[in-house]
């Protein structure tokens, strides 16, 4: 199934092979896309270069989304290799660790609010702003969100607010970029054990509760997310923009099932 042949896509957010972005890269590669990668932490550079080789790529570039200069340098460097490209995967989020533990009102503070929104929401539009001139018509931008944007989840705290902002950002970006024939969507993923997720207190309990109530009775994998991202990056999804697509085994449609009675 080479439905992404001829598409060039930048993937951000691979920390290791458990990262959601890793599953997305696998699916994009299977479907025939050419890939480029960015990393923040210098410690991940070598590992990412190795992964990139498996995906027939040698494009591995640094980018810390908290700095406009770093975002600009990412696309300046990419432009020397790809004059134009067909989209990017934004798989980036961060809030200080203390925010993911305990009573929301007690732990929230102005600084953490700002950091969470800057890295987890603003960075998506910042990347679009910096790369707009390089994006081909029919390009597709995809970000990752979580149901904590729609409903209160204990310990998810300020990240729920940042994800709500990211989802609104997705709709505003889709509206602004639609006339340029660029689509923008978000995947609302079910919980997956990744480095970022393990920073949330009691994340393992979230997973086991989730597994017990979702219609599909199985956990979502990075393959499930990857396949949806590949669809969203392809012309198969040409009529879809500004959407938040739940890839969560149906968790979001359930209020109660027989296991809770
Ligand atoms: P992950 O493997 O830890 O990936 C998070 C990535 O964010 C890392 O690669 C990290 O880079 C990057 N990042 C953080 N700050 C950055 C910065 N300033 N500049 C550039 N990159 C930065 O965790 P993940 O679960 O796959 O997370 C990917 C996305 O999926 C996030 O948006 C997350 O909220 C979302 N999501 C996750 C779940 C879940 O259950 N896992 C569910 C729904 C949505 P470094 O490693 O270099 O710091």
Please describe what this structure looks like:
The protein has 261 residues and is α/β, with parallel strands linked by helices. The chain has one domain (8-249): NAD(P)-binding Rossmann-like Domain (Rossmann fold, 3-Layer(aba) Sandwich), CATH 3.40.50.720. It contains nine helices and seven strands. It has helices at 20-30, 45-54, 68-79, 104-107, 110-131, 158-177, 195-198, 203-213, 222-233; strands spanning 8-11, 34-39, 60-62, 85-90, 135-145, 183-189, 244-247. The chain has a seven-stranded parallel sheet, sandwiched between helices. Helix 1 links the parallel strand 1 (8-11) and strand 2 (34-39). Helix 1 packs across helix 9. It is globular. The mean pLDDT is 96. NADP nicotinamide-adenine-dinucleotide phosphate binds next to helix 1, strand 5 and helix 7. The site of NADP nicotinamide-adenine-dinucleotide phosphate has 29 residues, from helix 1, strand 5 and helix 7. Substrate binds at residue 95. Catalyzes the reduction of a carbon-carbon double bond in an enoyl moiety that is covalently linked to an acyl carrier protein (ACP). Involved in the elongation cycle of fatty acid which are used in the lipid metabolism and in the biotin biosynthesis. The record marks 201, 204-205 as: Involved in acyl-ACP binding. It is an enzyme of class 1 (oxidoreductase). NAD(+) binds at residues 13, 19-20, 40, 64-65, 92, 163, 192-196.
- CATH homologous superfamily placement: NAD(P)-binding Rossmann-like Domain
Overall pLDDT score: 96
Kindly name the structural category: alpha/beta
Output the number of helix runs.
9
Work out the count of structural domains.
1
Report the sheet-strand fraction. Answer: 15-25%
- Listing every helix as H and every strand as E from the N terminus to the C terminus, the arrangement reads EHEHEHEHHEHEHHHE
The radius of gyration over CA amounts to 18 Å
């Amino acid at each position: 199934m080479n439905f992404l042949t001829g598409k060039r896509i930048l993937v951000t957010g691979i920390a290791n092979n458990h990262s959601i972005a890793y599953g997305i890269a696998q699916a994009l590669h299977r479907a025939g896309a050419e890939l480029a990668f960015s990393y923040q932490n210098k410690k991940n550079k070598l590992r990412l270069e190795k992964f990139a080789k498996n995906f027939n790529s040698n494009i591995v570039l640094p980018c810390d989304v908290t700095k406009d200069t770093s975002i600009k340098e990412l696309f300046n460097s990419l432009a020397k290799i790809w004059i134009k490209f067909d989209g990017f995967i934004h798989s980036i989020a961060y809030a200080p660790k203390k925010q993911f533990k305990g009573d929301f009102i007690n732990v929230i503070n102005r600084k953490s609010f700002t950091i969470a929104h800057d890295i987890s929401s603003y960075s998506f539009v910042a990347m679009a702003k910096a790369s707009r001139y390089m994006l081909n018509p029919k390009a597709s931008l995809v970000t990752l969100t979580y149901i904590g944007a729609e409903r209160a989840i204990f310990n998810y705290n300020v990240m729920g607010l940042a994800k709500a902002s990211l989802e609104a950002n997705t709709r505003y970006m889709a509206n602004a970029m639609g006339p340029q024939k660029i689509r923008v969507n978000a995947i609302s993923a079910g919980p997956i054990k990744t480095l970022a997720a393990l920073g949330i207190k009691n994340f393992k309990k979230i997973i086991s509760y989730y597994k017990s109530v979702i219609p599909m009775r199985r956990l979502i994998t990075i393959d499930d997310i990857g396949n949806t991202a590949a669809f969203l990056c392809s012309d198969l999804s040409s009529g879809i923009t500004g959407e938040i697509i739940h890839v969560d085994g149906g968790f979001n449609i359930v209020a109660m099932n027989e296991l809770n009675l």
